[in-house]
Write a structure and sequence with these properties.
- The protein is about 30% helix and about 20% strand.
- It has two domains: about 10-85, 2-Layer Sandwich (GMP Synthetase, Chain A, domain 3); about 105-350, P-loop containing nucleotide triphosphate hydrolases (Rossmann fold).
- The protein is built from eleven helices and 14 strands.
- The strands form three sheets. Strands 6, 7, 8, 9, 10, 11, 12, 13 and 14 form a nine-stranded mixed sheet that branches. A three-stranded mixed sheet has the order 3-4-5, covered by helices on one side. Strands 1-2 form a two-stranded antiparallel ribbon.
- It is globular.
- β3 and β4 (about 45-55) form a beta hairpin.
- The protein has about 375 residues and is an alpha/beta fold.
- The chain has helices spanning about 10-20, 60-75, 120-130, 150, 195-205, 225-235, 250-265, 295-300, 315-320, 325-330, 335-350, and strands at about 25, 30, 35-45, 45-55, 80-85, 105-110, 135-140, 170, 175-180, 215-220, 240-245, 270-280, 285, 305-310.
- It binds adenosine-5'-triphosphate.
- Adenosine-5'-triphosphate binds near residues 115, 119, 146, 222 and 310.
- Binds and transfers iron-sulfur (Fe-S) clusters to target apoproteins. Can hydrolyze ATP.
- It comes from Oxalobacter formigenes OXCC13.
- Keywords: ATP-binding, Hydrolase, Iron, Iron-sulfur, Metal-binding, Nucleotide-binding.
């Protein structure tokens, strides 16, 4: 029993116990289990600590601070509470046999079973959403059949080399961008053979002067041919996402992509269903033009997370066609919010992966 006048002290256990009741919506686990609680300092009844997020979520920091503070307030006799929220993105494990690149913490392949499902649009907007949440992000446009990132991003210039050896990425809307389109003219691609293309993409990946990226999104060619297969083997991928529309055919193709990554031991971080519905701009009625729940059903059948659904929205098409994706054109709009939610869920999935430890151990050399 505490005596009158005696100063009661709060214990770290009580602090952890209180925070373990706060579950992060994107991580789907609490901050203690996610090892996000750092630097707990207890001074009598006053508590200060940091919640270190493993994924960029600037727009959520205030909300998280308030939730953690409210949970701590329930501790009997607690005094002043100070909660800081910050983000630390680290390098996570990639598929066996390859090592992460020094200037890129996490590479995520964005793929689709077939063309035209909105893979490039999704890549551009997710990259911009991650950047808006505070991450350093790049895009490598590897879609040999239609490298559309430069035009989606409103870029007309070609990259240059400041050291005569490596290419400098083009900086646009805060992103670092490189495209296979810069390396070929419009007639060449059909004449290129798969090994040449793969080599060119690997070269772009390794010889671009990426500047300290948290995430690099690769806009992959659609389908599951040789190029995709080799890239899944050679590029150090933290994971992949599959973009699909809800149509049966698209889902069927997307399934092949999913299986290709699984076979290559690339972690499938989730499925994004694009053009999932259409909201009538006049009456607000929701129509499922291309069918319903294709991505969701696929994620259930294959045990892969659904990262979210993007409705068919004219602003998405108009803004991207104008070289200013919707996330930068209307950052406070509904569509930007949808891309931000998907981006946070995706980055949270990355954050839950084991950290890369390949740099910790020196290579084993045979004794003389
Ligand atoms: N959610 C959406 N709402 C409206 N239009 C969209 C949406 N997603 C994509 N689009 C439009 O659909 C067209 C195809 O999109 P995009 O180029 O991103 O597809 P893709 O899968 O990358 O195709 P490809 O592999 O052939 O390059 C574009 O005109 C784009 O603006």
């Amino acid at each position: 029993m505490q005596k009158k006048g005696e100063k009661m002290s709060i214990t770290p256990e009580a602090v952890n116990q209180a925070i373990s009741t706060v579950v992060d919506d994107n991580l789907q686990t609490d901050y203690v289990s996610a090892r996000s609680v750092k630097n707990i300092q207890i001074d009598g009844n006053d508590v200060s600590l940091t919640i270190e997020m493993g994924y960029p979520a600037k727009s959520l920091h205030e909300f998280i601070r308030n939730r953690v503070t409210a949970a701590l307030r329930k501790i009997d006799g607690i005094g002043k509470i100070h909660v800081d929220v910050d983000t630390k993105i680290v390098t996570h494990e990639v598929q066996r046999g390859v090592k992460p690149l020094p200037d890129i913490k996490n590479i995520i392949a964005v793929s689709s079973g077939k063309g035209g499902v909105g893979k490039s649009t999704t890549t551009a907007n997710l990259a911009l959403a991650l950047a808006a949440e505070g991450a350093r992000v790049g895009i490598l446009d590897a879609d040999i059949y239609g490298p559309s990132q430069p035009s989606l991003m409103g870029i007309s210039e070609k990259p240059t080399s400041s050291d005569g050896k490596n290419m400098d990425p083009i900086i646009q809307y805060g992103l670092q961008l490189m495209s296979i389109g810069f390396m070929m003219d419009s007639v060449q691609p059909l004449a290129w053979r798969a090994p040449m293309i793969t080599q060119a993409v690997m070269q772009l990946l390794q010889q671009t002067k990426w500047q300290d990226l948290d995430y690099l999104l690769i806009d992959m060619p659609p389908g599951t041919g040789d190029i995709q297969l080799t890239l899944s083997q050679k590029a150090p991928l933290t994971g992949a996402i599959v973009v699909t529309t809800p149509q049966d055919v698209a889902v069927l193709d997307a399934r092949k992509g999913l299986m290709m990554f699984q076979k290559m031991n690339v972690d499938v971080l989730g499925i994004v269903e694009n053009m999932s519905s259409y909201v009538c701009s006049h009456c607000g009625q929701i129509e499922h033009i291309f069918g319903k729940d294709g991505g969701k059903l696929m994620s259930e059948a294959y045990g892969v997370d659904s990262l979210g659904e993007i409705p068919l929205n004219i602003a998405v098409r108009e803004q991207t066609d104008n070289g200013k994706p919707v996330v930068v054109a209307e950052p406070d709009g509904l569509m930007a919010g949808i891309f931000r939610d998907i981006a946070c869920r995706l980055a949270a999935k990355v954050a839950l992966k084991p950290k890369d430890t390949s740099g910790l151990f020196p290579p084993i050399v045979k004794a003389e």
